[in-house]
Structure formats: C-alpha cells, structure tokens
Amino acid sequence: xKHSLSAGQTxxxxxxxxxxxxxxxxxxxxxSVGVVAVFAFIVYITLPGAYSGLDTIESTVTWIxxxxxxxxxxxxxxxxxxxLFAVARFPYGFPVSGKFPRS
Length: 103
Description:
2 strands
C-alpha cells in the first residue's frame, strides 16, 4: 500500500527543495544565454570598418580571446545546471543500486 504525500512533497523528497534547485539550474542556463548575448554585442561593436578604429587582426584576436572565456563560462554553467537538476531529481543522493527510477 502506497502512503499518501503531504502538500509540497513529491516521491523524491521535499518538493520545495526540488523546486528551488530546478530554478537555480534554469537560472544558470539563462545566464549562459546572457553570456552569448554579451559576446554577440562585443562582436558587433568590434566589427572592422571605416570608423571602428580596429582592423581585421585586432577584431579577430578580440573575438577569439573573449570567445574562449565565454565558452568556458557557458561550460561551467551547464555543468552546474546538470548537477542541480540531478540534485532536484534525487535530493537524498543517487540510488545505491545504480538503477534510476522511471519518472
């Protein structure tokens, strides 16, 4: 016989904790979108042109150096988001048997 769950709880534990960790993970992914937007703006303002003050080589160096930093920040945000989604799914740790319950 299955026990009944009180309000705010799920089968995986405290529903409020799961909600907060999911929101934090989504926030990390949204921050990645913000990093992409800032990088796109930097690319736009450093495009070589007659009045830009940067030539092609300087623009390319800027794009590569800031692009690598943006990729690293996005990668870290994705890793943390995946960890937070896993914590939201299994708030008391992963199952010992190695088999994931179907959701």
